[in-house]
Design brief:
Residues 2-257 form the CN hydrolase domain. The chain is an alpha/beta fold. It contains 6 helices and 15 strands. A hairpin with a 5-residue loop joins β13 (232-234) and β14. α1 (15-31) packs parallel to α2 (74-83). The model has no long low-confidence stretch (mean pLDDT 92).
Length: 298
């Protein structure tokens, strides 16, 4: 059996406050026997203060951008000193090898080792004004199983999760700084249309790939963004095992990966029953673009 925890919390530019929040949830995780704990996107240094046409840029908002750190830098080392033998996934702004390029990134690690890292591939709205895009997906062997990482908007693209499932991912950690809708925002954020989408993507991605899905998210506010929380753990049948809903907190669930996979995949096994030979247009950008244009002008 493996106990999973997923965090909804607020992270800002104040690194010491971030470390204190990490310590708080690590202590709670230890008390509850958690083996794998997932923090949100941008848990070290916070996310962007705004998106869209008024998004942060290197030129106009250099002071407001999150600190860019490296995998071997003191910031992740500080996190490792806090987590000890607990396996953790956490998001941050990564500084590229050229010492200038920024990536929206995540890593899975414990106190002794970084098992792997990921740079966000799919960027929403004006995020590309601040970050460069990653180029692929990997799955990492860890003490809690084979773990895949993705960040926020990635969950809107079924190909991203499917690639990791095909590479043997048992658990996919989806780290987010997912806000409420910018216009016509619902008075009750739990009923907001962007909250609905966030939750729907989580259950759909878990079910279609028959994997455990761990969704973390920022909560509260930062800049012009109001986050919707709803950290959760979803089983391979698309069932939500635990959730924080809107508030800050930690969703915790006990899972049995081997037993769940045997049960869920005994009959309809989606990965086995694929028909890749008929999916050609999905991987042909030019053809897909033409089809989209024809649809748009129909």
């Amino acid at each position: 059996m493996t106990i999973i925890g997923s965090v909804a919390a607020n992270f800002t530019r104040d690194l010491e406050q971030n470390y204190a929040t990490i310590e708080q949830y690590v202590a709670e995780a230890r008390a509850r026997g958690v083996d794998f704990l997932v923090f949100p996107e941008a848990a070290i240094g916070g996310y962007l203060s705004s998106l869209g046409n008024h998004g942060d840029t290197r030129k106009t908002s250099a002071r407001s951008l999150p600190p860019a750190i490296t995998l071997d830098g003191p910031e992740l080392a500080r996190v490792q000193s806090i987590v000890g033998d607990l396996v953790v996934a956490i998001g941050f702004c990564e500084l590229g090898e050229d010492g200038e390029t920024r990536y929206n990134a995540a890593a899975v690690l414990d106190g002794d080792r970084v098992y792997g890292s990921y740079r966000k591939v799919h960027q929403p709205l004006g995020e590309n004004m601040s970050y460069s895009s990653g180029t692929g997906y990997d799955v990492f062997d860890t003490p809690v199983g084979r773990v895949g990482l993705q960040i926020c908007y990635d969950k809107a693209f079924p190909e991203a999760a499917r690639i990791m499932a095909l590479e043997g991912a048992e658990i996919i950690a989806s780290l987010s700084a997912w806000p409420a809708a910018r216009t016509a925002t619902a008075e009750n954020l739990q009923e907001d249309r962007w909250t609905y989408r966030f939750n729907l993507f989580d259950t759909a991605r878990a079910l279609e790939n028959q994997v455990f899905w761990v969704a973390s998210n920022q909560s509260g506010t930062f800049g012009s963004l109001r986050y919707v929380g709803n950290a959760k753990i979803v089983d391979p049948g698309g069932n939500i095992l635990a959730t924080t809903l809107l508030g800050s907190g930690m969703a915790v669930a006990e899972i049995d990966v081997a037993s769940a996979f045997t049960t869920m995949r005994a009959g309809m096994f989606h990965l086995r029953d694929r028909r890749p030979e008929v999916y050609g247009p999905i991987t042909e950008p030019q053809g897909a673009d033409v089809a989209w244009m024809e649809l748009a002008h129909a």
